[in-house]
Design a protein that fits this description.
By secondary structure, the chain is mainly alpha-helical. Among the domains are: 30 residues; 44 residues. The protein is built from two helices and no strands. The N and C termini lie far apart (173 Å).
Length: 107
């Protein structure tokens, strides 16, 4: 019987030591409220990052589109040699003729 009591006392002292180590670790772990705060802060940072990324992608798309249109306009305007302009022709001058008075009938 004494052997059993000795084993139980030894088990109790081991259990106390383990309980002390568990309590020490438990103090270092975060609580649920702290974890929720950290998760919310992370979500806010992620939303800001996504908004910044979308803003940059839209801006980059607009700039690339404008650059492409500019390059295409330049290439299409200068790819084919232009035909020389025809020589200017002298202007047509029309001289008005004086109007002669209509003959008057004789009475």
């Amino acid at each position: 019987m004494e052997a059993r009591i000795a084993k139980l006392e030894e088990f109790a002292s081991d259990t106390k030591e383990r309980l002390v180590r568990i309590e020490a670790r438990l103090e270092l772990t975060a609580t649920k409220a702290e974890l929720n705060e950290k998760i919310q802060a992370l979500q806010i940072d992620m939303h800001k990052g996504f908004a910044d990324m979308i803003k940059w992608m839209v801006g980059l798309t607009i700039v690339m589109g404008a650059t492409a249109v500019t390059v295409m306009t330049f290439v299409l305007n200068n790819a084919v040699p232009k035909a020389p302009l025809p020589a200017p022709q002298p202007p047509v001058i029309v001289y008005p003729q004086p109007i002669s008075p209509a003959p008057q009938p004789k009475p």
